[in-house]
Design brief:
Blueprint (H helix, E strand, L loop, with lengths): L26 E6 L5 H15 L3 E6 L8 H15 L1 H11 L7 H8 L2 H6 L5 E6 L2 H12 L7 E4 L16 E4 L2 H9 L6 E2 L13 H10 L8 E5 L8 H11 L3 E5 L4 H9 L5 E2 L5 H7 L2 E4 L4 H8 L4 E4 L5 H11 L4 E3 L5 H10 L1 H16 L3 H10 L16 H28 L5 H7 L6
Parallel strand pairs: 1-2, 1-3, 3-4, 4-5, 5-6, 7-8, 7-10, 8-9, 10-11, 11-12
Helix pairs in contact: 2-3, 2-17, 3-17, 4-17, 8-11, 12-15, 14-15
């Protein structure tokens, strides 16, 4: 069958037989996405543990599998949306969180990643694990059509489960806690298993000596409570306001990590926040130095803080998953969700010195000790499967209109990420025009 570069291939099943099982190391592919750092962080933790169990692990970025570079465009649009128009993102998240399946634009975009997804799976791949919802959608579609013949797992990195995380065809959905497991089950997820979190083993409770050494290393005060304020790898949200309010309470000194947003760190220092950092490589050490974590997204950093024995509070959370994660963590008794600024001082005091903080520390440490982790579930299911060769893929030539459709889908997706929420903010809530304009001033976020 002829193949041309200007034709978009359509996947069709291949009748090729599965070769005999190899005696060599078996491979597991992990598909993450460089959207922030949480999905990649979970993938790194899984890779380390799977390697310890004797697997060869290959990691891939889902953004690289999307057609025509749209993955990077989408990531940039998402970043700008969180920074410029968070109210629009909240509306977008809310309208899609209970959808039975992705919309037509998303489906078209995911379909464009299927052939590349199969192409990266090498011989002897015995399982594929996704730590990103878009990758799970593609893997589930391939499993449903028998184009992927090995088990596909989704590791739910969030404490709340958006509908996009659940894809028919995925064999097992692994959750860090019973609450996200219940949410996934309610949305029809298959094989839901409470596996527990995966974090770097360096995140552990600090000894007195470690705490003192860490404070000296980071140039922090030797005495007094320190509140570690984090805002993800992008440093988004009302970080300046939260830092100022923590300082004003007098309960703790704010120590702010701005991720890759170095401009934010510089603004914080001009605001008088003495301990403002950009990207920090030694987050275990910084957690050893601090006494409480204040976060706005509820992602991997919260799980790391639990392992380090820090009580956690959600405050001025970003829209969408920031709110739903805060609610789920609060329901689980793992983190306080401070909704009212008037509650900031008393809640921080309770977490630092009261029984609430003691209970949260115990619950966080128990979360890491009570579940076996996701690796045993992946290993058991994978070792029960014959090791496949790379899935052969044949192609069918399509008309050039297919290319136009793919490009249109990508453009529509980018537009959906920025224009639609802004349009909602302007047309459905015209009184909030000033607020939206304020969000466009990145310096003030």
């Amino acid at each position: 069958m002829p193949q041309r570069d200007d034709l978009v291939p359509e996947l069709v099943p291949s009748p090729a037989a599965v070769p005999p099982r190899s005696a060599g190391p078996r491979r597991i592919a992990i598909i993450s996405a460089s959207v922030g750092a949480g999905h990649d962080g979970a993938a790194a933790g899984l890779a380390d543990r799977l390697t310890t169990h004797g697997f060869e692990v290959e990691r891939h970025d889902f953004l690289d599998l999307l057609p025509a570079g749209t993955g990077r465009l989408l990531c940039g649009a998402y970043h700008r949306l969180l920074t410029w128009a968070p109210a629009g993102y909240q509306h977008l998240y809310r309208t899609t969180e209970s959808a039975a399946r992705p919309g037509v634009v998303w489906r078209a975009l995911f379909h464009g990643a299927e052939r590349r997804m199969l192409g990266i799976l090498r011989a002897e791949t015995c399982a594929v694990v996704s730590t990103y919802p878009g990758a799970s959608q593609v893997l589930g579609a391939l499993r449903r059509r028998d184009l992927l013949t090995v088990p596909a797992f989704t590791y739910l990195t969030d404490f709340s489960v958006h509908a996009l995380w659940v894809s028919p065809g995925i064999d097992v959905h692994l959750a860090v806690h019973a609450i996200p497991a219940a949410q996934a089950h309610a949305q029809g997820a298959a094989g839901v298993t409470v596996a527990g979190p995966v974090t770097d083993p360096r995140f552990a409770p600090a000894t007195a000596g470690q705490r003192s050494a860490a404070r000296a290393r980071f140039g922090l005060p030797e005495q007094g409570p320190l509140a570690l304020l984090v805002a993800g790898s992008w440093g988004v949200g009302s970080v300046r306001r939260a830092a100022a309010e923590i300082r004003e309470t007098g309960v703790a000194v704010p120590v702010v990590v701005c991720g890759r947003n170095q401009a934010l760190a510089e603004r914080l220092r001009r605001d008088g926040i003495a301990h403002a950092f950009g990207w920090v490589d030694d987050m275990p050490g910084l957690m050893h130095a601090c006494d409480v974590l204040v976060q706005n997204a509820g992602g991997l950093t919260s799980l790391e803080a639990f392992a380090a024995g820090l009580p956690v509070a959600g405050y001025r959370c970003i829209p969408g998953h920031g709110h739903t994660n805060a609610a789920a963590l609060d329901e689980a008794g793992l983190a306080a969700w401070i909704r009212d600024p008037a509650d900031l001082a008393p809640v921080l005091a309770e977490l630092l010195h009261g029984p609430r903080g003691q209970a949260q520390r115990a619950a966080g440490l128990a979360l890491h000790r009570s579940a076996p982790g996701p690796v045993p579930a992946i290993a058991a299911r994978s070792r029960a499967q014959p090791a496949p060769s790379r899935q052969p893929v044949t192609t069918r030539p399509l008309a050039r209109r297919r290319i136009s459709l793919t490009v249109a889908a990508a453009a529509a997706t980018v537009a959906l990420g920025v224009a639609a929420p802004l349009a909602y903010a302007y047309t459905e809530a015209p009184a909030r025009f000033t607020a939206v304009a304020h969000y466009l001033d990145v310096d003030e976020r």
